[in-house]
Q: What sequence folds into this?
């Protein structure tokens, strides 16, 4: 698994280096102008935060049923990446909002739900870090709860009145906007996979170290 | 005398006239100001925000890769040391 890390990181790095050129060539949006270009670094991590939360919940559910350690390692890695990608979305969003809406933050449904989801996964990590023995089972339950919030985060812009752009924006994007978006999305996705391989390797090695400690005590 | 002002169409016309008067009474823009004369708080260039967003993405990933790589190196170092210790103990 670790062998995949370097090629994935290299491919993601290449996309992150070339994406600004492609984004700069994309047309300016009519009402927001230059600041709309934050969209290309905001929507992909936000979407991957949602997908990562769903993935973490599914893997945690599978861990609760099978108790296979690899599922626990993967869930832990996915939770950490949910927090990382969520942090990126929650920082780039206000940078965009400051110019587009005139405020850094608005307590509207999408923003508040996203913040709550991020906090659930921060709670997951704190539970794993300080929860002691058996915390992986409790954390798996929390991940299922985190996953359950994801449809509300996604649909919040359609269900409630909000200043955030609707979910209909992305499917209806003209090609000039859509190409840089999906190019950047590919970079974020490859980076996600690279970090996932690295993080799962770390968990595997930690388990191997624990096993060696047990052997040395005998 | 017939109360003409109770007629609905007259009432509607009166309301429309009042509304038009209210709109007309609003003060017009007294002067045009160039955008570069706005106070610094009102002038908000987009470029620093875009650059900050892109820089944050890079820094977040670099920091995460660096810290995870360091942790992995430490764990592998400990595995190496412990394995060597165990190999020495074995007859």
A:
């Amino acid at each position: 698994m670790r062998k995949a890390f370097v090629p994935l990181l290299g491919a993601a790095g290449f996309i992150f280096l070339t994406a600004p050129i492609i984004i700069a060539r994309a047309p300016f949006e009519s009402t927001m102008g230059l600041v709309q270009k934050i969209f290309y670094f905001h929507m992909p991590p936000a979407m991957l935060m949602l997908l990562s939360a769903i993935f973490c919940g599914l893997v945690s559910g599978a861990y609760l049923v099978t108790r296979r350690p690899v599922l626990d390692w993967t869930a832990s890695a996915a939770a950490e990446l949910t927090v990382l990608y969520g942090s990126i979305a929650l920082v780039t969003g206000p940078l965009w909002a400051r110019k587009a809406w005139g405020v850094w933050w608005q307590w509207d449904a999408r923003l508040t739900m996203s913040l709550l989801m991020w906090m659930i996964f921060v709670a997951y990590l704190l539970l794993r870090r300080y929860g002691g023995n058996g915390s992986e089972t409790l954390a798996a339950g929390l991940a299922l709860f985190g996953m359950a919030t994801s449809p509300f985060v996604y649909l919040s812009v359609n269900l409630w009145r909000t200043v955030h752009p609707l979910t209909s924006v992305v499917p209806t994007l003209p090609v000039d906007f859509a190409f840089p978006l999906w190019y950047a999305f590919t970079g974020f996705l490859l980076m996600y996979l690279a970090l996932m391989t690295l993080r799962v390797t770390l968990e595997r090695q930690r388990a191997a170290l624990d096993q060696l400690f047990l052997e040395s005590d005998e | 005398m017939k109360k003409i002002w109770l007629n609905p169409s007259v009432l509607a016309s009166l309301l429309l006239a009042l509304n038009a008067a209210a709109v007309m009474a609003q003060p017009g823009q007294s002067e045009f100001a160039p955008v570069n004369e706005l106070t610094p708080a009102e002038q908000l260039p987009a470029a620093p925000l875009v650059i900050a967003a892109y820089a944050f993405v890079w820094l977040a990933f670099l920091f995460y890769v660096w810290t995870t790589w360091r942790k992995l190196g430490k764990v592998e170092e400990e595995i190496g040391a412990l394995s060597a210790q165990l190999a020495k103990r074995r007859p």
Q: What stands out?
A: Chain A has a mean pLDDT of 93.
